[in-house]
Each structure stands twice: as C-alpha cells, then as structure tokens.
Specification:
The structure is a homotetramer. By secondary structure, chain A is α/β, with parallel strands linked by helices. Chain A has two domains: 2-63, Alpha-Beta Plaits, CATH 3.30.70; 83-332, Alpha-Beta Barrel (TIM Barrel). In chain A, 33% of the residues lie in helices and 18% in strands. The first copy, chain A, contains ten helices and 14 strands. In chain A, the strands form three sheets. An eight-stranded parallel barrel of chain A has the order 7-8-9-10-11-12-13-14, surrounded by seven helices. In chain A, strands 2-3-1-4 form a four-stranded antiparallel sheet, covered by helices on one side. In chain A, strand 12 (232-236), helix 7 and strand 13 form a beta-alpha-beta unit. The first copy, chain A, is elongated. At the A-B interface, helix 6 of A face helix 6 of B.
Chain lengths: 337, 337, 337, 337
C-alpha cells in the first residue's frame, strides 16, 4: 500500500501515520516528493485493516499495490482449473456448449428441448426453475417441480442439466437434482448465497453482475472457492451501459482479461447480453475468438410461446445451424465442440 | 401495448399477430402507417404474457404503454405512505435523520456512537451487523452479537435502531432486535429477500441498486408491498457511472422523480454515494432541497479506527455542525429536523 | 509518480527504469515491498513524458501523484475567479440566473422571450444560433442572422445575451455580437475551439461533456485559461448513464467537488440534464443547495411551438413562480438572485 | 409516430393534438385503450417538427416509429458501400489492416514504422499529426510538418497513409497530403467538421464517440454522406463504462449491429479501447469474428519512447506475429488479409 499525504503535511502528521502502520505490524518507508510526501507500506497489507488510513485528514489517498486475490489468479495458483463433469473437461479443451429454454415451463417443453439438443449433439441443457423477475406479477418459475423435470431429463436422455439458484435455502435440494448450479447476475454479490455454493460439490457457473467490475467478479469467485468449492466457471453476460440498442453490452475484453489473469474456465451468455436474436451468431463467434471456453445460449422449441425472454431465444433449427458455423472457430482456438 | 411490425409485413403475418392477441383475451386495433403497420393492443396487458410477441420475426418492436406498477405509484394509490415509528411520521413532515457507524464493531463503540447521537438530537441510529464485503478476507460483521448490542442501545437510550439484513434466514431474528431493517444496494433484486421483508411489520429501507433504473427500484418496492408490508422507505445511494472522483454518482433526479411518482418516503445516503467525507455537507443540503424525507449518514466516534468505510465517516463534531446547518433547509422544505 | 513493478522484476529491469527516470531529469527512490518493488519518482513529473514507463513489460502500473492542473485549482491559485459582467459579480455572490429559449427561432420569438425575462427580473438571456443536432435533417439554427437578433435584444432591452459557438470560424463574430459565449457538451474536448475561446475576452461558459470526468472537465477549462482567457464559468449539465427515465443524470457531486477544488464559478443546466419539465424545480433547488453560482434554464414563450427541446422548456409563468421559489434557497447560501 | 396521452385526457385535449398533427400535414388515428388514449400519426414524420408534441401537458410520451436514417441503412439503400483505394476494396473482401504509431513524432520514426509495415505486408499506415490531448501541457502533434512526413512515406514506400483531423481549417490541406482522413472519437458530434468531411473525396474513418449510442454514430455518418462524401468507414473504439480494468469497453455488439443495419464498412480499434497491449490479440480475433472489415492498431518501433499511448503500442515483432495469427480468422470470415 502507498499512502500519499496532502501537500504541507507536518512532521507530526507523518509520525502519526507511521505509528499507525507500525502498530499494524507493517513497515513504513517515507519518500519526500516535490510537493507531497509518499509512504510505502511494506508487509502483507492484503487483510490488514488499512482502509482507515484513508480517513486521516492529512492523507490524500491510499493506493493498494497488492491485488486482493489469493485463490483465483494465476499469480497465486499457477495450475489451471479444469471442471470435469460427465466426461467433459471444461477449461481443458472441451468447449462447454450449454443451451436450452430460459425457464422450465412444462415437462413437455423441457423434454422437447432436450430431444432437440440430443439431435444437435449438445451435451448440457440449461433451464431455470427459480426466475429472478423484475416484476412480482411476472412468471416466477416452477420451483421444485421444475427441478424434478430436469432430473428426469438427465435420467432419460443422459444430458447434463444446469439451473439457477437464488435462495440460500434452495442450494442443497437443487444440488441433488441437477449437475451444475448457476448464480445469476443479480446475485453475484449475494455473499450468503456464494458461501452456500462453496459447501456443495457441483460445478457452479457464476455470472457477472450487470454493474460488477472484473475485480469484483473475481472476488465473488474467491468467495465460493474460499468456502470450499473449487469448481467455479465464470460467465460474462454483458454489462449495463448507456447503450439501448441491445439489452446489455457484451464485454469481451473481460473474457480476454479473465483468461489471462485467472485459472478458471470462462464462458459467455450472448443471449441475455444481446436480448435480441439477430446478434447472437456474431457474438458467439467473437466470444470463441476472444478465448471463451463455452457458451450459454437460449433455445426454445417455440419462442413465441416462451413465458419469458422469447425475443432472444433461438429455434432448434437456428441452434443447429449456429453450432455448425461455430465448429471451425472452436477448432482454430484448439477446442472441441 | 403497441406492436410495430417490420416494413413489408404481409396480411398473413398481421393476422398471425391479431390471432395471438385475441387468444390472450385482448383486442387488437390495426393502423397502417406510411412504411409500417402498427397494432394497438387494448385490455389489461400488465400481467398478460405478451413479451413473446416481440419474438415474431416480422415484429420490429413491442412497446408497453401501461406502467407495470400497481401498488407503489400515486396513479394507482393516491394516498401517501407515512411510516409511523417511535413518535415520528416519516413521509409526513418528520425528517428521518439516521446516523451511526457503518458497522457495529463492539459494544463500547456502539454505545459511544449512541451517546453522541442523543447529544446531537438524532433519533435513529444505523449500524450494520451483517456486512456485504467485496472480499471474503474483509471484516464480515458481528452477526447476532451485533443485533444484541443494538437491542441494548434501544433499551438503554430510547434511540430507534436500524440495520441491514442480507440473508433470508436472518430476517425474523433481526426484526425482533431492531426497529427498522434495511435491504442493501447489492440485494435490491434479491427477490427472495424482498418477499421475506414483506412478511414482517418493521419499516424497511430499500436501497437502490448501483445499476438499477428508477423503474426497477420501484418494482423492487412493489415486491415488498405485494408480499404484505406497506412500510417501505426508498433510499437513493448513488449509481455506478464512469466517474471515479467519488465512489458513486448521487442521482438526485431520482429523488425528485420518486417523490413525484410514488407515494413512498424517500431518503438519501450521501456517505456511501460519495465515499469521501468532504462532499457530504453539500450533498445533504442538495438532497433536502430535492425533496428527500431523510438522510442516512455515517458517523464514527473515531473514523480512523473504523473497520470499514472510515474515509467517509463524519466525526461526532462534524455531524453536530452539519445537523445545525441542515435545519434551515429542512424548514424551507416544510420538514421538522 | 509512483512506478509499481511486476512481481519478480530483476535487478537489470529495475536499473532500466531508474536510468530512464534519471535521463528525464527526475530522481528515483526504490522501495522493496513483500511481493513487488515500488519506485517513487521525485521532481516535477507533470509535463515530463513519463507515460511510456507504463509500457515497459515488467512495469505493472505507473500512478501519477501530482494532479495535472496548474491554472484552475485552488491548490495552485488560491484566489477565486469572479466574472464581472454587466454589473454582476458571478462567483462572488451574484447568482447567475440565465434563461431563454433553446434556439433563436425568429426576431419575434426572441424579443417576446426577452420581454418576459425583463418582467421576471432575470438579467441574462440564452438562445442558441448554431445548433448541435444529432440529425442533419433537424433544424440547424439561424446562424449569423440569429446573432444579430441577440445583439438587438441587448441593445433594446439591456439584457446580457449568451449563445453557443461550435465552429472555430464563428468565435470572433459571435464574440462581437453577444456578451457570453458557450462551449456545448459535445465540444468540451474540441481542443481547437477551446484554444480559440482563449483568444477572446468574453466570459465563456464551458459545459461538461456527457461522458467527461470531472478531471477532464477541469483540464478543458485549463485549455481556455492557458490560451489567455481567465473568464471561465463551468456548467454541469448531466452525464450519460444507464438510466433512461430522464435524458441525463445530473451530477451534483461534481458541483460540490468543483466548488471545493477549483476557483471558478460553477453553474448548472437542469433543463438539458432532465429533458423533462417536471423535474426542473427540484433540480434547481438542489443545485443551489449544492453550491451552484447560477442556473441555465430553458424558457420558451410557447413550448409546444419550439423547434427543439420543447418538452423541457418552462413557460414564462412557470419560470416566474420558480424564480420566486428559488430566492430563499439563494439567500440561505449567501447569494443574491 | 405514436402519441400516448396521460390517463384522463379530455376530448378537448385530444382534439388539440389532432389539430396540431393535421396542421403539420399528417394524419392522426385515435385508439382508446383501457387506461389511455393512443394516437398513431400517419405520414412521413421523419423531418416534421413533431418533437414539441411531447411538451403538451396531457401527453405522456411521443414515440418515433420511423428510424431517422435515410442514407446509411440497408433499409433505404440496399447496395453495400465499397471503399476503393490503392487497389483495395474495403467492405468487399479486402481486410483493412491499418497500423502505425499513435503520433508522427519525427521523420525517422515515421519512416522506420513504414519500413516495418512493408516487411509485414501491411498496406495502410496510421499516424496522427494533430493530437487531441486531455491536457494542454501534453504533446500536441507535429501539425503540417507531420503531414509532409506522411506524404513522403506515401511517395517513397507506396503505403497508403491515414491521419486524424480535428480542426475544420485543416481538412483541405490534410486531404491533399494523406489518403484517408479520420474523425476522432471526441469529434464524432463536431457537426461542422463532419460537414467539411462531406466536401472532400478521400475516404473518412469515423470513430464512435466514447459515449455515443449506435444510433447517434449512424447519424454522424449520415451527416458526412449527406454533405457529399459516400466513402465513410465506421470505427468502433470502445465506450466509456464503469469498468476501469481497461481504458474503454470494446463494444462488439455494435460491430454486429452496424454490419447488419448499415451498408458501410466497419473497422475496430482495439488499441485505444483496451489501452493495454496484453488484450489486443484476443480483441483483434474477436473483432474479425464479429464481422469487422478491418483493424486500426498501434505499432511503435520503440514503444517505451512513444510520446503518447506507449502502453498500448505493439512492437514490430508483436505486430508481425499477430498478423500471422489473424489470417486464418479472416479466411474463415471470407476476407483477404
């Protein structure tokens, strides 16, 4: 940590800071600049309560030099995380193509979606049973009933199934019914939920919050790993900006940066980012080229009957063509789709 | 709802839309423009599943005309909400000045803060027991132990006490220990938490999410009221923008709009918005002038010892002067501080 | 400037940096932390070309400690700037109430607006002659003809007149026809225009760019002052965020910060920020309470006939009532309206 | 255009609106909904001054149905724009790889950069002579002297040269010295500059403003084309968001949308978007995959000596490897690099 004092800080004030630093078991190194004094704090400031130094009235700012990560980044943990599930090695060459309806709506719809995925050759099905809806008057999901449908899909088709959990009280039951759990964008900093996710063994897809920085996103993954579950897959799904031509702005710089700095698999959800079907193809290709290890795509047997997010769902035929188009991009990036 | 078709939509396509609309129990009115056909959908489209119309390939866009609110806005519920607590009528002239440390850190600190508030004449104390921290390595709050300290403050000083709840499993116990519960910015769309807040009787301060639109903010309040608790106080606390000179950008246009469109009391948290002590005075004055019914301000007996957010905490002396400065602004706005 | 090296930087790499620093006439001070080496660069780094240090592959980041300002901030220039014009001392107690139509549309409209302003007691009239319009098909302003109308208003009514200039080639002629020139938000970083503004003597209102940080805003003012014109008035007019309920998000934290850090007068344009008439009253009050030295408000004799921005224009009656309501807030802040 | 009236609008108010519409030569169609009256305005509302309808006090909102574009979109102009220059057909299969230093700094540096580009097989060199710098104390560019250097590069190497123009007074001279002119992000809505660009014949690269919507970006291109120059190339270069891990957030959804809706070539500048060298490779690949017709990349013979933006410049070796890596992606997209 570096402490920059305001111009004109007195010797007493400098002493006050250095005493506080020494009291925390850290070592201050003073350097006097042209207009300001700068103090470099030596020692592991990562978990020391040094924030309050910023509140001293003669301190201009305190700048952290150490990054706050311990478990998620290559700097501290060189070996990459490979999520092994159902014969797939996600993060190690197997491209995680995950598709399916936004919500589980009925057994018929879920089974129909599964049949299409099998035919296309996609191995993981998504479908939400608990829906985070902006309005209390919108469809809230089938809950436990939906989880049972997904379990049945798994048993009858051999597909892996994936679903979102929003409530800490649902983590355990969901982990028993599906293969992969998802933390939605709105819950990226629901820290109690992250801690519960750390107590299960299922892989967890952690979606980036709509207004979360990459740093906060990594720290949220750190919560899950720190609580005991190393099987974390990061998912970029667009951030909220001033642009209104699409629902959110897909941030592929984040994908590139996460692949560079962390050892975790990174996937992309272009469907929720775009919120419109016509941009999904190009965004899938761009995601793969940016280094993504997988995609999360909405497909609905009959988009116009979807109870939510119909406008962005692909039809089974569209998904089939898209998958064919994506294969050469995956190959170029050394991944198996 | 208005459905705008793409240029060149055929008669069959128009029929397809009108049939879908009729099947939903609604009435279509067709109007042919110079380049496009527009269909106005009559009937209560508020909870009808009309979103999927947007997914038809010959539809350009579907525009909702009815606002989705039922319980929060003056349009549907003319009488203003007054939160009556401890002799205060918040939303009806009594200015809700709420101050105290970011976190409850020890009984001594909490009691010391309470003593200062009493001396200044402030009637509601804030202090968090459950802390939403970006890093799992940062102080996570005292939990139940903290709740007990707050209860003791209430019993020994007569102050009202306010605290944040993050986990659905803590709502009941917290509601028994403190007067007012708070939903933090990160949990504004934690819908299960909102529903639990609807089951208690305590007033609930709902903070706006860092990237939440005013519309989403109102819909979150709608969840709580719809679940049974009408005592909702909205709190603007800054939104996330590109500006980095302060932690967040306080949005007083939102305060003006919420006061105009909803019947709920609206307060402002300038401390978390600014993240720096030197802007709090002007932002408090501006909030009152914009129409706020209260303020949520951080005060710490010894900011440089604070376990979090020290940089933005006022000292007791600063809070005292500030309160004196704010009084004439409250008077001008017809409020009692 | 502080240079943070990557973990594991070698002695040769450290030497490479220190040599570069020494070659620039500056002095490096090395401090070795737990995981990283930090180099504090002593000397005036403000105009030294030190950015490239950031590009060395073993440098993690270079952090500037000195602020880049020389002419705009209190730190370098303690005395406040008072813009003296037409008997007003803007920035020294005289509240700069500026109102009028978005555009000059006809002599009749401009004269009618002026008559209303005189009656209300407002001393400065705004009206744009050159319009920055998003579409080439929208009304582009009356140009020189408009300037002549404004000159006539000045001569016949004694009002001060204010207008925007967009093209460097129009600065001189505009400066001869009106009292105060304005640089619009879209041109805040049109550096050639800023330099031309530095060559005239008229006061210049510099509007903040829609996506400009406070730091960039101050640097734009620095351009004008550095080019020779000290009469700069800063104008906050809302920034672009994700919120769509109003056109832009008025940033009153910026007003508070600019008043604290710079010696320049600061005014607010709530009309363009809100883009809707119903929020202007509360935003005017909040602006005054945040410390603003003036307001820029749209008023049109007949808003529904306005050729642009009618939705946000006040009628003369509304402006009159508003002015009356604002007086006590100005008084409380020690300003004369 | 669709006009939504407020609930409870009276017959007189409805008549008032319909009269205004009729007076503009348009035709109103009234439709009465459950809670509100909606009026659909028939006729070409694209350039009619209908905005003021929004300002009537019983109007809730006015929604434009027609898009404001006439010249830039496929809907109005089906044939794609191909920029033919120096034997390249940009927008028709020839991938526009443009590279070079941020600024022209000296003849030696410019010639050295050109030699490297020739060796790598890149045909267009970029170098700015007029620099838009946030601070007046930073290097402002070589101006005319720089233009002469670029002309010499063109004459001695056969490379095409590209540079930015900021001042309307420099457009003509620059158009005589270089092949391609660029409008920088800060000037995207400098409408006088756009109009001057419409008067020359050189291809113009128009960069998206940091806070410009896709719609505003297209409208800026519309200005240039409307003023007479059809050779417009759009350039996505990142938008300003809350994320600080990179300088700007590259928006590849915009690339996909611009390719879909307009007939103009679209290129990407990953260097200025990222502001850091380590993300440029993945972002180039992603841009190509998203459909880009070219790239604008910074390369400096000696990045650590660059007078600006050194941190993001590639070395000649890096650029050579990158170009080799990009070729198969171009091939996959049917483009020749």
């Amino acid at each position: 940590m570096i402490i920059v004092l305001k111009p004109g800080a007195t010797k007493d004030e400098i002493d006050h800071v250095t005493t506080l630093i020494t009291d925390l078991g850290l070592k201050p190194v003073i350097s006097e600049g042209t207009e300001r004094v700068v103090i470099h704090v030596l020692g592991d400031t990562r978990s020391a309560p040094v924030d309050q130094l910023d509140s001293l009235k003669f301190v201009e700012k305190a700048i952290r030099v150490l990054k706050p990560y311990k478990l998620t980044t290559k700097e501290h943990h060189a070996q990459k995380t490979v999520v092994e599930i159902g014969g797939l090695s996600i993060g190690d060459g197997d491209f995680a193509m995950i598709a399916g309806p936004c919500s589980a709506e009925s057994e018929e719809q879920v089974m129909e979606a599964a049949r299409h995925l099998k035919k296309i050759g996609i191995k993981i099905m998504r479908a939400s049973c608990f829906k985070p809806r902006t309005s209390p008057y919108d469809f809230q999901g089938l809950g436990l009933e939906g989880l049972k449908m997904l379990k049945k899909v798994r048993e009858t088709t051999g597909l892996l199934v994936e679903t979102e959990v929003m409530d800490v009280r649902d983590v355990k039951i969901a982990s028993e019914h599906v293969d992969i759990l998802r933390v939605g964008a709105r819950n990226m900093q629901n820290f109690d939920l992250l801690k519960e996710m750390g107590k299960i063994k299922n892989p967890v897809i952690l979606k980036r919050g709509m207004a979360a920085t990459v740093k906060e996103f990594i720290m949220a993954a750190e919560y899950i790993i720190h609580s005991g579950n190393k099987n974390v897959i990061l998912c970029e799904r667009g951030i909220r900006t001033f642009e209104t031509a699409y629902r959110n702005t897909l941030d592929l710089s984040a994908v590139a940066l996460l692949k560079k700095d962390t050892h975790l698999p990174v996937i992309v959800d272009p469907s929720h980012a775009a919120g419109r079907r016509d941009l999904i193809g190009p965004l899938c290709k761009a995601s793969i080229a940016a280094g993504a290890d997988g995609l999360l795509i909405e497909m609905h047997p009959f988009p116009e009957k979807a109870l939510c997010d119909g406008a962005q769902s692909l039809t089974p035929d569209m998904l089939k063509s898209l998958t064919t188009e994506l294969r050469p991009f995956c190959e170029l990036m050394g991944k198996r789709l």
